[in-house]
Amino acid sequence: MSITCVAVYLGSKNGNAPLFRHAAFELGIELAKNNIAVVYGGTNVGTMNALAEGVLFEEGKITGVIPERFVSKSITHDNLSELIITKDIKERKAIMENLSEAAIILPGSYGTMDELFEYAVNNQLNNLNRPIILFNLDGFYDPLIAQLRNMEEYGFLTTQLMEMFHSCSDISGIISTINNFNKQ
């Protein structure tokens, strides 16, 4: 399987440091430069907007998937390659997952964590081999990685399931992980 489209899960806020927004923008640029299509939450706010603007800056393909209840709040990004409006968050997650061959997880909040673990669980239940790349920007995901290792150590998470997670501290590591997976 070749990774041609990634789901990117990230925040509707910018976080408390400029590096989060900057990294999302730069990731969008690099994904587009590498001809990797992006599917994301479809908004024009937070790091989600920065990612979209980066992809669009390089004229890459980006699909937004947004629940209809958010469309009326004027947070829908208007310049995407494609916009899919769903009835709810559950349908949004299913569509994003079905369109992608991998997930990239940037810093975010409850929604980002929900999407991360749903992607992981569906990978496990459906016996899929889709990588989940944690963009461990400034050590953001160090505590989560430690918890995953703890789950593995105590026998609740198999080594095989742990191998679906890849931690990258920079964008070149993310692109390298995708390229290495494509060579398998």
Give an account of the 3D structure.
The chain is of the alpha/beta class and 184 residues long. It contains eight helices and seven strands. The protein has a seven-stranded parallel sheet with strand order 4-3-2-1-5-6-7, sandwiched between helices. α1 packs parallel to α2. The longest helix is centred in the N-terminal third of the chain and has 16 residues. The protein is globular. It starts with a strand and ends with a helix.
How would you concisely characterize the structure shown here?
It is built from eight helices and seven strands. It has 184 residues and is α/β, with parallel strands linked by helices.
Secondary structure elements and their pairing?
Elements (H helix, E strand, L loop, with lengths): L4 E5 L8 H16 L3 E4 L5 H12 L4 E6 H4 L10 E5 L2 H11 L2 E4 L4 H16 L6 E4 L6 H12 L5 H4 L2 E4 L2 H13 L1
Parallel strand pairs: 1-2, 1-5, 2-3, 3-4, 5-6, 6-7
Helix pairs in contact: 1-2
Cα end-to-end separation: 8 Å
Strand count, sense and closure of the main sheet? Answer: 7 strands, parallel
Secondary-structure-derived class: alpha/beta
The stretches of 5 or more residues where confidence is low (pLDDT under 50) are none
Helix content: 40-55%
Number of DSSP-assigned strands: 7
Share of residues in strands: 15-25%
Characteristics:
seven-stranded parallel β-sheet, 184 residues, 17% strand, alpha/beta, single chain
